[in-house]
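Both lines are given unchanged directly below:

***
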Amino acid sequence: MKKFRGYISEMAATPVSALDSEFIAKATKVKSFNLKASDFESLKHKAEIQHLYATYMFKEFDLDKTIKGMNMSKINTLIDQLKNMNRSNFEALYDYQPKGVGPGEALLYFLIDDAVLGGGGSAGVDIKIGGQNFEVKAAQVSGDGKTVYGFKLGGTVDVTNMVNKAVEMKKELGFVTQGKGTNEVNKTQIAAIKKKFPKEWAAIEKEYRDKAHKYFGSTPVIFFNNNRSGKKLTRAAGNIIASKVVKKTDIELETISQGVIKPRVKI
């Protein structure tokens, strides 16, 4: 006990200038807060949430710079500022996904004053900005920047019949996969199926395109660049790559992974 008391006394006598400021800075880093998905579904605590992020994660950020409305150019300018201030904290905010929330959605809530998240129960509405509904997709961007892929549609789109037909044609061509790969059809296999069963595959593509277009509907989609190197975002990722209403002619069937059809969309 005497030794402990002596240690306390010694600490109390240590001048602030002698403390390891780098250690303290690391120990007080904040990357998330005790927030629920429902906190992002209204404007009730919007100012408080913005204050938390600006105070503890982006100390140089000027909250007077947040905007109203969906303006891709202005939002990307603010995103670039956050990246430059603290890349690690930016990625933590971009990837913050409480239940029912996808990548980039909490980020938009922070930067847009009249934005509220739709929540997991609002099919086809990830975020409302100024009262307008938007879908949000974190997607990989092609090398030429003309298409996005690597994401899936909502669970309301029934693709079971199409997947079963595609898997059956894959088997007929002698492609054998086991385990999780049983209900997968990769791009190489799709190319072979197109060559051997052109009409049958065209029918699957048409059905999927119709269903995907119905899913997107007239709701604009905000596409985030979600390209990664391992788990880390690439330098250009985390920005909005497009915001648009998806036309039927924009949609292609990209691949089938674990029984889920993933599209490729022209932007």
